[in-house]
Amino acid sequence: MALLRLHLRLPFDTWISVFYIGPPREGGAGPRSVTLLRGERPGEGNTTAMLSYLSKPNAELKLFVKNLRKRPSKLVRQPRAFLEEREGLFAQRTGASFGLDWETQLVGEGEKLPPRPMAMQVGETLIIEVPQTDENGEYRYAANAFMDKTDVLSKPVNEIIEVKKGKSKKKGGPEPDPLLQLTFVALKEGKCVLFVDVSWEDQEEKLCMTHRLAAPVAKNTIARIGPVEIDVQKSAGKPEKGTLQWWNGEKWSAKKGPKKKGKK
């Protein structure tokens, strides 16, 4: 990975995804397999196997690099809170909730994030909503939260939200997969920075095999919501527990989704 970054003149703190074209499929039917390079450190993942294969005379000497994004220097990937810790954090939710949904932030050109810093009060909740699979339930997504100051804003807690089937969906089609809400509770005064990476990077091999693709798709398979800077302030006034507002790219709204173009 380090040599690739050097060759491509990428900053050392750039995360990348690398794919290579593997050996011919059994029986020679269809295009060669598209394989994700795994492992950052020597001896990890399939780097040794890739180098061994690329040294063979029938190897296809191509590497595909995508999903370029900045590696955090101070933010750490945080595990989910479960069991007693989860219940303890939920018990501290005494105020309103504010949501960022993946469709508003990532689909198309995406929308702007809330102005920094985003002010919250102790007891309020930040929700980042992401998908668990694609709309047909074939490919799964993984979401990872990176943040600092988990004593100010809690580590993420999973909440599964059932999705109502839209009127436009064909009868007999697959039921919508439940959405995943990563919930962060404001615990005390202070500042916290976080972002969430949403990925189906490891599903691209399956996609290429299913659709008989000879190379990875051109579009990125990892997207980032954030970073968001949170300024947690002392609770003032009567808490508004139960209210949920979504960021539409310009303001907070009771309705989820981006603001309609041309609407004032």
UniProtKB/TrEMBL annotation:
Q: Where is this region: Disordered?
A: 237-264
Q: Where is the composition biased (Basic residues)?
A: 254-264
The source's domain of life comes to Eukaryota
Q: What is this protein called?
A: EF-hand domain-containing protein
**Which organism encodes this protein?**
Cladocopium goreaui
The root-end lineage is:
Eukaryota, Sar, Alveolata, Dinophyceae, Suessiales
